[in-house]
Amino acid sequence: MKVLTIISMVALLAACAATGPAQYGPSGASNFGYSSTKIEVDRYRIVYRGSGGMPPEMVEDYALRRAAELALANGYDWFRVASRDMAREQRGGVSIGAGFGSGSYGRHGGGSVGVGGNVGRVGAQDYFTARMEVIMGEGEAPDDGGAYDALSVIDRFVDPGTGIAQ
Q1: Which has the higher per-residue pLDDT, 24 or 163?
Q2: What does the alpha-carbon distance between residue 67 and residue 46 come to, in Å, rounded to a whole number?
Q3: What pLDDT does 18 receive?
Q4: Which of 20, 119, 150, 156 has the greatest count of CB atoms below 10 A from its CB?
């Protein structure tokens, strides 16, 4: 009974220690946020690591936001995602299981029976990482549905009432 109480308390502490979505920004000591690498003159690799509790859609949106920022900072008007990948990792929580058995010792014999189970990870959180490679261009964005207008992407993240980026 004490073991079950201790496991429950550990699971509760793990759930309480979970943090909400991180704010948008470069990855730092927390390792959450964006990083970008220039591959060619007009091509970048962008990685956005979301914190626990951040939905995958938000992680991808933040990677697109970083692509738009890079495009504008380098004199481009639009960008196209050449490749993208979303990875999911589950961290934290407590794995709960049970096992029973018997054995033999010296002259005393006995059968051996084992039963085990695992009911999953309690209090675990999903962490998503978006990776994308983008190609940037100048002028009018191609009208094929695959290009993003950099200013439009940035405007999506600005609060119209305050003009402050979200």
Answers
A1: 24
A2: 7
A3: 44
A4: 150
Domain assignment of residue 87, given as a range: 25-95+116-156
Overall number of domains in the chain: 1
Query: Under a CB-based contact definition with an 8 Å cutoff, are residues 166 and 91 in contact?
Result: no
Is 11 a domain residue?
no
pTM reported for the whole predicted model = 0.69
Amino acid at 158: V
Average pLDDT over residues 33-49: 97
Q: What residue type is 22 in one-letter code?
A: A
When pLDDT is cut at 50, 70 and 90, the band that residue 64 belongs to is very high
DSSP-assigned beta bridge partners for residue 46: 36, 132
Q: Using CA atoms in the order 134, 136, 140, 142, what is the torsion angle rounded to 10 degrees? A: -40
Contacts of 142 (CB under 8 A, 6+ apart): 78, 80
Task: Identify the pLDDT of residue 132.
Answer: 97
Structure tokens at 30: 């927390």
In a domain, 17, yes or no: no
